[in-house]
């Protein structure tokens, strides 16, 4: 154990900011309980200045740093390896700074501020911060930026990348890059902030961010619609966008196995369909003005399009009930048991063909497969998960073979093996297979330039830099 490093670490960090031994356990296990590691300690800085001191000390002693922002990663991006030689840097105490600029429609926050806190601060200023997903109460902005997180409103507002105007980043040598600019136009050379959004802490540690805000919508219309097939869902999406434009805020596709899981594990949730349809769409429109008018317009569009089994929420409570169905799907899957999960993106028009072809191949190889498909159809992002009902205890033995089928078809349709969850540890081998040698070389060159000692979240995103690129 590097006793000199730990002695200096303790001297610069107040006792409640540094954790050792069994107190580090919650930080060493990922949310899905797939990855477990060990760490020298967990450091919890309260400011950028403390963070700089930590990074400089780690660089001096060649200690790897694993940043962690809420520990909600689904790919093991915030979990250390098993060596016990790294320092976890948790951002939970860097949560003091929140500044809203209503005139500029921006909010500037510390990296440890949670998504829910940002949403609440924006609402207090009569503004909207549109990023929204299930872990809003626990995920932190630094982690959301590091994975370029998405959510249900990406269709209209974009991922975290599109919601970010400026960053403050502590680089691998402890230098601060001061990029906290709230500008929508800044054409002075390379857009450096984009290097760090989605990099999962492998290039530098995000300490603060300037994020976009939007006018707060006053009108909402939500509907849950029985659709015959994903192809019909795509047609509905295009029809809606032609008629109401970017007021289509969310457009979610949900398969019958999702509804079956909800009935089994959350029977108290009311489902309007009986029997459950093969596919349904949950959508929301938002705008200024009056909700009653928007609800009436949506109902008229659905009626004219021939959707006889469609439920348009007549009030906020009904809308929340519809959204609760979508939000509880991941939890229902967790209760059901272990599954092979895929977070993929496909060009929207190709999704129906992908779903048919992928299911046919998987069922042919695994007749007991139960495919739970759902996700953000509007932006082409599917959560495509597979249970093996007769082999649940052994399912990870089949993971590589299942992934090979899914990812081959994703590549065939020019899609991506990671839409919003990142790469982390889980997909770094697959990344090396589904990105070109030129792309990987460019990524490695950037990594080498910004982190020459390879101390920033090693073992994530990219394979070992010494490994040859095929």
UniProtKB/TrEMBL annotation:
Protein keywords: FAD, Flavoprotein
Domain FAD-binding PCMH-type: 35-216
Protein name: FAD-binding oxidoreductase
Domain of life: Bacteria
Family: Belongs to the FAD-binding oxidoreductase/transferase type 4 family.
The protein's required cofactors: FAD
Gene Ontology terms describing biological process: respiratory electron transport chain
GO molecular function list: catalytic activity; FAD binding
Alphabetized InterPro entries for the sequence: FAD-bd_oxidored_4_C, FAD-bd_PCMH, FAD-bd_PCMH-like_sf, FAD-bd_PCMH_sub1, FAD-bd_PCMH_sub2, FAD-linked_Oxase-like_C, FAD-oxidored/transferase_4, Oxid_FAD_bind_N
């Amino acid at each position: 154990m590097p006793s000199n490093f730990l002695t200096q670490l303790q001297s610069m960090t107040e006792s409640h900011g540094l954790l050792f031994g069994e107190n580090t356990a919650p930080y060493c296990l990922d949310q899905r309980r797939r990855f477990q590691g060990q760490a020298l300690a967990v450091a919890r800085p309260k400011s950028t200045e403390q963070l700089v001191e930590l990074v400089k000390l780690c660089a001096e002693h060649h200690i790897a740093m694993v940043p962690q922002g809420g520990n909600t990663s689904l790919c093991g991006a915030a979990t250390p390896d098993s060596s016990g030689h790294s320092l976890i840097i948790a951002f939970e105490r860097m949560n003091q700074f929140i500044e809203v600029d209503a005139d500029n429609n921006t909010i500037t926050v510390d990296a440890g501020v949670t998504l829910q806190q940002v949403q609440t601060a924006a609402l207090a200023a009569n503004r909207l911060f549109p990023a929204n997903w299930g872990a809003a109460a626990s995920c932190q902005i630094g982690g959301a930026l590091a994975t370029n997180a998405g959510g249900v409103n990406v269709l209209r507002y974009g991922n975290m990348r599109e919601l970010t105007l400026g960053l403050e980043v502590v680089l691998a040598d402890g230098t601060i890059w001061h990029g906290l600019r709230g500008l929508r136009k800044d054409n002075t050379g390379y857009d450096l902030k984009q290097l760090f959004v989605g990099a999962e802490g492998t290039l530098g540690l995000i300490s603060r961010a300037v994020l976009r805000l939007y006018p707060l919508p006053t009108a909402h219309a939500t509907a849950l619609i029985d659709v015959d097939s994903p192809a019909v869902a795509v047609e509905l999406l295009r029809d809606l966008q032609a008629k109401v434009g970017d007021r289509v805020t969310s457009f979610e596709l949900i398969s019958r196995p999702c509804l079956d899981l909800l009935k089994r594990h959350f029977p108290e949730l009311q489902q309007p369909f009986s029997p459950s349809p093969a596919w349904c769409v949950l959508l929301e429109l938002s705008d200024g003005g009056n909700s009653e008018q928007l609800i009436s317009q949506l109902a008229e569009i659905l009626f004219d399009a021939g959707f006889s089994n469609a439920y348009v929420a007549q009030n906020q409570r009904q809308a929340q009930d519809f959204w609760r169905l979508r939000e509880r799907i991941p939890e229902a899957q967790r209760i059901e048991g272990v599954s092979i999960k895929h977070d993929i993106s496909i060009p929207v028009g190709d999704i129906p063909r992908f779903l048919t072809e992928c299911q046919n191949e998987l069922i042919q190889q695994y007749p007991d497969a139960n495919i739970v498909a759902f996700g953000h159809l509007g932006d082409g992002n599917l959560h495509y998960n597979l249970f093996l009902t007769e082999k649940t205890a052994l399912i990870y033995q089949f993971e590589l073979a299942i992934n090979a089928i899914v990812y081959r078809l994703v590549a065939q349709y020019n899609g991506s093996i990671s839409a919003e969850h990142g790469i982390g540890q889980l997909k770094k081998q697959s990344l090396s297979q589904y990105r070109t040698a030129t792309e990987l070389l460019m990524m490695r060159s950037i990594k080498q330039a910004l982190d020459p000692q390879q101390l920033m979240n090693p073992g994530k995103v990219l394979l070992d830099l010494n490994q040859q690129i095929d």
